[in-house]
Amino acid sequence: MKLLSFLFTSSIGRKLIMALTGLFLCLFLVVHLIGNLQLFKADGGYAFNHYAWFMTSNPLIKTVSWGLYAMIILHAVKGIYLAMNNRKARQARYEVSAGSANSSWSSRNMAILGSIIFIFIGIHMGDFWREYKFGDEITWRSYTQDYNTQAVTWTEYTPVEGQKIYAKDIEGGHMLVAKDLYSEVYDAFRQPWIVWIYVLSMLALAFHLLHGFQSAFQTLGINHPSYSPIIQFIGRAFAILVPLGFAAIPLYVLFQ
Q1: What are the phi and psi torsion angles at 179 (to 5°)?
Q2: Strands of the 173-179 sheet, one edge to the other
Q3: Inter-helix orientation angle 11-36/46-57, to 10°
Q4: First-to-final CA distance of the chain
Q5: Spatial separation of the C-alpha atoms in residues 196 and 7, rounded to whole Å
Q6: What does the DSSP 8-state code read for residue 125?
């Protein structure tokens, strides 16, 4: 109880929560990006739809997902709370000094950037996750992969009432019957306004990570002249490459 009280009531504890939840979400971004990159494969959506099926059917992944949702909400709430407290604490200093002299633009606007990302997550989940889990209009596909040639064939599939997604090994190959989230994503990303919302949100994510990644390590006390430059380099690379990877997908679909 003392630990929980420390984490949720003290300034240091709140920063620790921000650091730990932030690093967990960074790990999730990498996993999610790897899955989304399957959209580039010219296999009719086999790899991506297989990924979507695995992520929504594996018991361990489903359990972790609930923890992920909690982490997102906790990170957002604590971030806004810390931003409000920091703003109040800085008001007096702004009267006698240049408030932005020793801080970057991204560090001063973490709450705004985080709010943009949080809203985007809500829109993103409404467009794809909700439709995949509960939508009635999403189409289905049946895939067969030949183990010898690795060739994938697919056909449109009409599910029966109560149909469940499944994957199984068959003689000489593998079969997947799944909701066609691949086509759902491609249809969405052929609409320019959705693409630009996505790209601008990834720009906000990039700036958010630019400060947040290395700040998390500082909060955890992992800060030393011998390896801090390495952490800063990895943080900058992560803040550029991960959002760029996400943004490349809708742009590819829109302009291909």
Answers
A1: -65, 140
A2: 152-157, 140-146, 173-179, 166-170
A3: 140
A4: 55
A5: 38
A6: I
Report residue 35 as tokens. Answer: 């899955």
Total Cβ atoms within 10 A of residue 130: 11
Q: How far apart are CA 179 and CA 161, in angstroms?
A: 14
- Lookup: tokens for 158: 């009409």
pLDDT in tens, the chain (256 residues): 555 555 555 667 777 877 888 888 898 899 999 999 999 999 999 999 999 999 888 888 778 777 777 878 878 777 776 766 666 665 555 544 555 555 678 878 888 888 899 899 888 888 888 888 887 789 999 999 999 999 999 999 998 888 889 899 999 999 999 999 999 999 999 999 999 999 999 999 999 999 888 888 888 888 777 778 888 899 999 999 999 999 999 999 999 8
The Cα diameter of the chain in Å comes to: 77
| Stretch (H or E) spanning 144 | strand 140-146
Locate tokens 């000094």: which residue?
97
Cα separation, 182 vs 248, in Å, equals 16
Q: Which two tokens stand for residue 247?
A: 């943004």
Amino acid letter, residue 140: W
Backbone angles phi, psi at 121, to 5 degrees: -60, -40
- Helices 11-36 & 228-255, crossing angle to 10 degrees? 40
Q: How far apart are CA 235 and CA 231, in angstroms?
A: 6
Identify the bridge partners of residue 166 per DSSP, sorted by sequence position. Answer: 177
CB-based burial of residue 76 (10 Å sphere; 0-12 exposed, 13-18 middle, 19+ buried)? Answer: middle
